[in-house]
Give the backbone structure.
Amino acid sequence: MAERAISPDTLDAFRIHRDLIDDYRQFTEGFVEIRDPRLAESVRNQSDRGAQWPDPWLSLNPTFAGGGTVDDLAATGTLLPETAALFRLGDHPLSLYKHQVEAIGTASNNDSYVLTTGTGSGKSLAYIIPIVDYVLRHRHLSGIKAIIVYPMNALANSQVQELEKFLGKSSDGGEGITYKRYTGQEQDDERERILARPPDILLTNYVMLELLLTRPNERAKLFGATSNLQFLVLDELHTYRGRQGADVAMLVRRVREAAHTKGSLRCIGTSATMSTAATVAEQRIEVAAVASKVFGTLVRRENVISETLIRATGAYADADLGPLVDARGTAEADDPVLSSGYDELARDPLAAWIERKFGLTEEQGSGILVRGAPTTVKMASKDLAATTGRTPEACQIAIQQTLLAGARTKNPVSGRPLFAFRLHQFISKGASVYVTLEPEGSRAIEHTYQMVLPGPPGDAAAERRLYPLAFCRDCGQEYFMVRWDQQRHAFVARTRMQIGDEQDGYLYIDTSDPWPADPIDRLPDVWTETSASGALRVTPSRRDRVPQAVVLNRMGELLERDDFPGNPNRIDAAWIPKGLLFCLRCGTTYHQARALEASKVVTLDQEGRSSAMTVLSLSIMKSLEQFKGLPKDVKKLLTFVDNRQDASLQAGHVNDFVLVGQLRAAIYAASTHAGEDGLDPLEYAQTLPTYLGLDPAHYAQNPHSFDIQPAKRALAKVVEYRALQDLRRGWRITLPNLEQTGLAKIAYPTAMALCEHEDSWGAAHPLLRAADPEKRKELVSVLLDEFRRVLAIDTDMFGQDHVDQLQRLSREHLTGVWTVEDGEPAPDVGYATLGAPRAGSSRTVLSISRLSLLGR
């Protein structure tokens, strides 16, 4: 679908979304190239239909009714003039929404309340302003006046920044108001200062508040200073549900008991939608009941304050919409209204239609404006097409261009855009693919799991069992994931990748070349040996792992010989017990019997959560970098996770991904430049920093230093160290190294000279003495490759002294992902042995005995 070109300096949410889906699709489809064309086409069609990424929901931030300014509240006596003087933006008093004014008025009447409004509605100011006003009115009172409780530290940290904006960054705050964060993130000396001199406003989280009640010293010092406590705020009240809600309700009661507050305590809750009731009036009743239970005090329904919405656009007629779609619905169209200014765009009929479609609707009965149900641009474009008689594609482009214009166009008074819209994209893991036991050209292909695919009604014999598929990581050959059911005498579906016992395995089907009853000629060379009579036979250690030819029906039941003739439903297959040791199609052999199945085969739902999050995050940041007109300080991505451990894990994963990605990009570029001979690792320090092309700001502690050379030398040493470590065979399934993917070749420049020097081979095996230099070089390269892949390399580079030196250089010159952190251990260097490795020895031990795989 053609779309109108947007200036590269203009932020385009739809373009970011398209790039995001494209990047994620490449990521999920990059694990395997499916060999069967019918399967590949079916999976491709699923992606095209957006099975993992359905069309995003679009919602508009509505326009809230204004309520005046803080100066207006000061004029009526609701606020002190000193309070109004603090809450200003430059020289202008802070403008407030109607619901904020209602909340401030309720607090000034000493009433508890709950504010239930949407995102971006200024809920925090609705309680911060009355708290600050109370502190200024009662400067003579000591101790804590307000406790604000957040469900997450990130929200508490954000609120501290909001307070700093209005009250200043001094330790006392503006006008002598003190505020402190006490969430467990503080250093010991900061905690001691807070305990010694409790602030007027304490910001914490519910877990820390619980701990304060159980720690005698902190309880005595903080709750000993709460006799003048007037406000208890629970931000994001809707997060406290079920058992957690009951725990928080009990915590509130214990806080009130420990505080010994003189007079009434105003309990305030802020929340997004807390009720699914049909009308605003019913929602207030439900929210008031829940809040009263949580706070242990009466919250009247009239004190449940909801948002008051107004329309930002005018009226429209359906007849006006068609010409506007014509003016905006093609790549060449450029309607001047889209860049004409706020007032004209607010009068635009299509803008009015969009606000009603995505933003506001009238509540039945009351006529109150409420938020409309979210919908997608594609669904809305179909409705607009039905109204205007234009194509859905043209309507979609027109809607998107009008939305983007509304996002760029600011109200000259409030500075807020006409349309602040959000795209809500849900992304799921890839779904497995399921097929029936039938020939490749006729088997059913499904993408949702069920045990049996039914036949026509009343025909039980037509039922067919469904099996999930796994695919060879090298050639894309499909394998049926099965488990042998002895009681049913049949193969049933296995849904877990890892092999549990000897009953788990795979079925292989190739109707054009069935697996033979005697497969000796199709087994890997290392599986066979020559007997004393000269016949080829299977080695004893592999006899129980040889794939067995079986004949099955469509329910996976094993057929006996007598059932073969005339059976139209028979299918020839190969039963692979205990896991895959070699691919029956491409011959790739796996010599470690206990290796994870995921390292051999892949299913379509194998993308890891951390890897997926990293890919999505980097895609968004990459898109933001393309918008040159966007200030640097707003090119940020905010993510929320359930706990600190998940956040730490994800941050580490992103850093590792960025480091490995940049490093391998440089190795790939250098390998490409080196040509067919491959890249010499001894040249890493000289070549890779050049191909990285990093700006000093990306790696140097002081990028503007008069002498940047020490930082460059430190970077070269770290890059060489990291790149040499990457020579080891990778263990990360979703991030194999370049050699494993065939994108890089390692060269041994002196190997050919050695192989051509005949005197050096005088004492070698007769076969080596007689071999030509090219054959010797091939053998030497294989041997050196095996040494290198376990890091069996004799070099000071991997010694602890060198690692300590890199850590010192990092402390002095480097920053970011290019540092070697203190405490990082030296690499686990491997070694080669002429004997057999000991049982349970590390994978870094390479056996090169004559009985080893390499020796054979």
User: Anything to note?
Assistant: Residues 1-8, 170-174 have pLDDT under 50 and may be disordered. The chain has 25 helices and 32 strands.
